[in-house]
Amino acid sequence: MSQSGKTNSRRASDPLSAPSLNPAVGTRRSCRHFVDLFGIQPEEAAQLLQRALQLKREGSGDRHASLLIGRTLGLIFEKPSLRTRVSFEAAIARLGGNAIFLRAEDVGLGARESVADFARVVSQYVDALAVRTYAHATVEELASHSQIPVINALSDSSHPCQAMADMMTLAELRGELKGLKLVFVGDGNNVARSLALASALFGLKFVLAAPPGYEFPEEFVGRYFSAFPRANLQMEHDPQRAVRGADVLYTDVWTSMGQEREAEQRRSVFARYQVDAKLFSKAGPEAIFLHCLPAHRGEEVTSEVLDHPRSQVIVQAANRMYFQMALLLWLLAETGE
After folding, report:
1. Do 92 and 215 reside in the same domain of the chain?
2. Does 155 lie in the same domain as 204?
3. Which residues are catalytic?
4. Is the pTM of this model over 0.85?
5. Phi/psi at 227 (nearest 5 deg)?
6. CB of 194 within 8 A of CB of 222?
7. Are 328 and 51 spatial neighbours (Cβ–Cβ below 8 Å)?
8. What single-letter DSSP state applies at residue 270?
9. Are 147 and 192 members of one domain?
10. Are residues 185 and 234 in contact, defined by beta-carbon separation less than 8 angstroms?
């Protein structure tokens, strides 16, 4: 992004009289963020999806190597990561840009300095910022003070990049998304919430099969139907009933990062929600299995299902990079292309 802080020519040789020493210097043009899927319109989601598919069809090579040349992506991760970090670094590199990885302890958001101060300063150094954090409020606060696009690379309530890459995977495998039945078996966590929103954007039927007390929060459901009054969202306690006729069966770990103290309790509560061969067989005859990974084999999913011919978890992981290439172009390229 270009700097916009021009100054008057009045006595340029006298630094004290030059009006360049003011807060306008270093400001950038208004930008859009990718904080969660509540903030995106169906037509924008469709545009992103089609661009991601196009980028994948065109392959790596040198075709895209100058699209974001000279651009820098900052990465701040308060949680460990494999797929998210590598896919973002690979995405910006394939587009000709580069990434700077910042460890949580080096940044100290809200501790070493305020989130607002950090956001205003880092906006002068990089062109976009991807944040993997615990509190969703941190992403929102960064976006409110940043002069560059902020991307939610995972928070406790949202994982929009994962969900959009999953829609890309389904579009590759099934073509038309509208009308597909996607069943998420497990906790109504950040991945499940983003998948429910992505399903609303693309017209899928979404079913959450979760134990009592682990469904979507009422606040999320209220906001969901306010944004998508015609969306097909269901919550079901019986996993056997929920998966009938499913086109897509999806699960995630029972215990997310930050919930380690609940691990034993969760293993007990979620035991009947394991995706095994028996449960998978109750889905549609051509149903595919998805998991955002890493998987805890023998807990939320058995190896028999994870390694099944209709399991697409590796394709799913690969598509993170292509979607994030499309996202970076959408956020950074002058024309949005």
Report:
1. no
2. no
3. 132, 159, 162, 252, 292, 320
4. yes
5. -80, -35
6. no
7. no
8. T
9. no
10. no
